């Protein structure tokens, strides 16, 4: 068990910058999620921690040791790969036993430890099969068991759930969370799925173009986004971002609609962020503004109304019993306590 | 004619064409097969029915032909060539497949280009060099030449197989605690085994059938089977019956190997070719 510290870490391929001078302190036993769209440098960061990629610049510390020049095998980390990286020519037992075998663990110790790991991921009856004979979810478990059969200092997980179907992903997510709480080992988890990030993480680092945009607890990331990118990336549906300006303490949309009072100075250009849940749906004429429904979606647990708002479309979440039709007109009001203002040029948050 | 009849007719035509093609390809082999069991006199008559004799197979191993020596030479040369070529080619192929090397493409092209050089062009330099360092008419000399012939082929073929092994698997093994050599031994070799086997058998066949270099570079001690065939020219003309018996001895291992690799043959060829 150990903390992981990245100091001014950079990875470049020629002119392309994968990770740009990033520093990060991951606490002992912390579950840290690197979140971002593909190509944002999150996987590269993880691969550098694992030793599968050499940093161009900067330092990687695991515990009290700088591991830049250590081979992957000497870093004492365990990794779960997106495609599982199982050994197809070995049985499940041999797969799980491999990290022990290759590190010279006595034979008598291997069997009980493999069985314990297999038990933790409920694989005991499959130990004699080959990976080919298992389903995706089961293969994922083998990869997990192979990681937990040792007690590494750090777990690294590279989009471990992304190859599973939606239903299985939810189950495995819960199992992962349970397991990580039980094992209490420092974990770095890479994903592009913000729900995985929100549910699993102690802290989330949102990345874009090789730069960490915001580092914080899931709560902070969701409720207090640092910039436009984080605001737009976190949440499902994504936060509505409305272009406009601030005039005399009112936010005015580009179309000229005076929307909500904001306690901030005048700005020629501004972006107002508001989550679907903070847009309340009323009957026509009873909200702050009347809008036409572009699409009405019933997800079962709630309804989503995409409404045409001048030239933009925004999404509001309605009660699950609400029933509307396309082209109906409804009233919308905004929850003034949960509005975010951004500068469209710097993309930074403007604190109100 | 109805559509069904047309289909049947076309099917019959196809079968006939295939049979003709097979016949054309097999005629020499059938002829050799028959001749090997005929007496010297029978050979000159195109008899399909005759009293078969195994005498030829005995004669070729006796003095003065001593085909056994040639068989031994061929076996040693081909086997040792494979045993040396495959490990070296595997390591080279692995490096080409997994590492970023300076001038990687150039090297690969050069390796391939050596295959395009006509053997006749380089046979004289080989002869002169071997004469100077005393490798003429030795099995070692032939093994070296055969290595030069099969290596490029083996490297390209094995590289195709290794390219097909997912990087994830190897990286998982490295994080799990393996050194690079352990990765190769525990992961890459078992996973590439069918490919290595196929490449090995191909190399064996090439070395076994190699004629030109053996013809020029050997004359007595290291003579291989294909060259040995030339022995069967006697005062009484070409000894076709003995020649055929020797031919069958040369072909037999090839048929066995072909049966063995049938399963991997197509896979091996396409993997090497497509990537």
Task: Walk me through the structure.
The complex is a heterodimer of chains A (352) and B (275). Chain A is α+β, with helices and mostly antiparallel strands and 352 residues long. In chain A, 24% of the residues lie in helices and 35% in strands. In chain A, strands 6-7-8-3-9-10 form a six-stranded mixed β-sheet, sandwiched between helices. In chain A, strands 13-12-11-14-20-21 form a six-stranded antiparallel β-sheet. Chain A has a five-stranded antiparallel β-sheet with strand order 15-19-16-17-18, with no helix packed on it. In chain A, α2 (92-102) crosses α3 (107-120), α2 (92-102) packs parallel to α4 and α3 crosses α4 (136-148). Chain B is an all-alpha fold and 275 residues long. Chain B has helices spanning 3-36, 40-43, 55-59, 67-98, 104-113, 119-133, 139-163, 167-175, 180-209, 212-217, 225-228, 240-274; strands at 233-234, 237-238. In chain B, α4 packs parallel to α7 (139-163) and α7 runs parallel beside α12. The two termini of chain B are 47 Å apart. The model of chain B is unreliable at 271-275 (pLDDT under 50).
| Ends distance of chain A | 41 Å
Strand content of chain B: under 5%
The main pleated sheet of chain A reads as: 6 strands, mixed
Enumerate the strands of the largest sheet of chain B in spatial order, edge to edge or round the barrel.
Answer: 1-2
Order of helices and strands of chain B: HHHHHHHHHHHEEH
Q: What is the mean pLDDT of chain A?
A: 90
By helix and strand content of chain B, what is the structural category? Answer: mainly alpha
What is the distance, rounded to the nearest whole angstrom, between the alpha carbons of the first and last residues of chain B?
Answer: 47 Å
Give helix % range of chain B.
over 70%
Helices of chain B, by number, come to 12
Structural class computed from helices and strand pairing of chain A: alpha+beta
Strand order of the largest sheet of chain A: 6-7-8-3-9-10
The number of strands of chain B is 2
Shape of chain B: globular
> Could you give a short account of the major beta sheet of chain B?
2 strands, antiparallel
H-E order of chain A:
EEEHEEEHHHEHEHEEHHEEEEEEEEEEE
Question: How much helicity do the residues of chain A have?
Answer: 10-25%
